[in-house]
Design a protein that fits this description.
By secondary structure, this protein is mainly alpha-helical. It contains ten helices and six strands; from the N terminus they run ααβααβαααββαββαα. α7 runs antiparallel to α9.
């Protein structure tokens, strides 16, 4: 009777550990399905070099219009393994203080006049749409003279934003299908008409880096949580072993 009473907490703890292990295995698989049928992009927020490259791309090509108001320069430095000098010299183009949030220098009124609406803050873009969507979006711009910006996008049709990375990827043109029932001809695929400064493979890597950086921005505490989580799991494993040894010691003389 006493032995069964002692086994119950041990079994409960074992069930908790099993649940944690299953969650760690299932979570990545669940995240891989976030794109809603879009090609899966593999990003790793623990790849510090990739995050640094992504931050450089964002600060050079995106921050002119888009802010990251929930992330501070100092927080980015800590997460990406950069010094204050590296961030302020290479990634801060607005003159903001090191402890300030990352905000675009574009006045909101001018943005609305130029684009019809102010460009959105991208702090939570990955949380809202998923990394697969963002990566596919960055690879799906094509030339379209019928739009105000001269660009369109197969993932986000009639997007108002011009393509900021065209110098890297180059200029894509649509390959149209057959028009039916009076509808415009659908875009079946995209063809690279004028190459950019990067090869397709290099641009794919650049998109992964930028997407990884935005993934980190959406949950900047994820890196710290993963480190803490590893220690918590290790503690629970050691505590379980200690509980089993203690149980045997308490009941070794009970017959």
């Amino acid at each position: 009777m006493h032995d069964q009473t002692l086994r119950a907490p041990v079994r409960t703890l074992a069930a908790v550990l099993l649940g944690i292990a299953i969650a760690l295995i299932v979570a990545p698989a669940a995240m891989a399905e976030e794109g809603g049928g879009l090609p899966h992009v593999s990003v790793n927020i623990h790849d510090q070099a990739s995050l640094q490259r992504g931050a450089r791309l964002f600060m050079n090509y995106c921050v002119g219009c888009h802010s990251l108001k929930y992330l501070r320069y100092s927080q980015m430095a800590d997460g990406l393994g950069l010094t204050e000098k590296q961030v302020m010299d290479n990634l801060n183009f607005t003159g903001a203080k090191f402890g300030a949030p990352i905000l675009s220098a574009m006045p909101e009124a001018d943005a609305e006049k130029w684009f019809g609406k102010a460009p959105p803050d991208l702090s939570l873009e990955i949380s809202a749409k998923g990394s697969d969507w963002v990566a596919a979006y960055l690879k799906s711009f094509y030339l379209d003279p019928k739009t105000a910006s001269g660009w369109n996008n197969t993932v986000f049709p009639n997007v108002a934003m011009p393509f900021p990375l065209w110098q890297l990827q180059g200029e894509q043109v649509p390959v149209l299908g057959k028009a039916e029932n009076g509808e415009p001809a659908p875009v079946e695929s995209l063809s690279l008409a004028h190459p950019g400064s990067m090869t397709p493979a290099q641009y794919d890597q650049a998109v992964r880096d930028l997407t990884a950086f935005l993934t980190y921005v959406s949950t900047p505490d994820a890196l710290e949580r993963s480190h803490i989580g590893a220690w918590v799991v290790l503690y629970l494993v050691l505590f379980t072993l200690f509980a089993l040894v203690l149980k045997k010691e308490y009941w070794k003389d009970v017959h």
